[in-house]
Amino acid sequence: MQRHFDKNIEDIKDVLLRMGAMVEDAINQSIRALLERNTDLAEEVIARDDEIDKMELEIDQKTFELIATMQPAATDLRFVATIMKITPELERIADLAQDVCERVIELNREPQLKPSMQLPHLAENAQKMVRDALDSFVRGDSQLARRVIVHDDVVDQLTEDSFRTMLTYMLENPRNISPAIRLTFIGKYFERMADGATNICEMVVYLVEGKMIKHTTATIE
Description:
The structure is a single chain. Helix content is 85%, strand content 0%. By secondary structure, it is an all-alpha fold. The chain has one domain: Up-down Bundle (Methane Monooxygenase Hydroxylase, Chain G, domain 1). Helix 1 (2-36) packs antiparallel against helix 4 and helix 4 (118-139) packs antiparallel against helix 5 (142-172). The mean pLDDT is 92.
């Protein structure tokens, strides 16, 4: 029975890691589409979102079946609870990458604004947070998870800086308003990706340490 349970856990973990890899790729491609003004690439990211949705449903089904048939012990239930929290976060992050690409397609129909350094920096930081969040889960590394949580403050500041830059562009020329608003939306999407990474890391801390740190100030111990 335990051997069968362990195999089911590994099957779920395998699907989750493949889903995580697809989400990471969606973020990476959305950033490329933004920086390169690549409409075709943006459309590819949007088209692949259905695959990630199907993987979320697959994980849900496998997890519910596991709970119903195997009656997992307390430690195993912690793992199952973590999976059930992480999976929808990943799906939301993938949706945000899709949202970025939808705004990119709209932006590519308009004249390009002068480059802003904050937005690419914000995107790269959010991408790294998601990558590190997944790594912390794979390695069972609660200290890495805590570092990711603390880094969310950096992303929040970059989001504010990017917004201020976009506001300046809008004040300089009314024609900048439409693209600047879309770029502001994109900045918020990346900030929310970082928030998703933070939520994943809170569950990693719970999985590894048995501590619920949501709504508390995370520290690196």
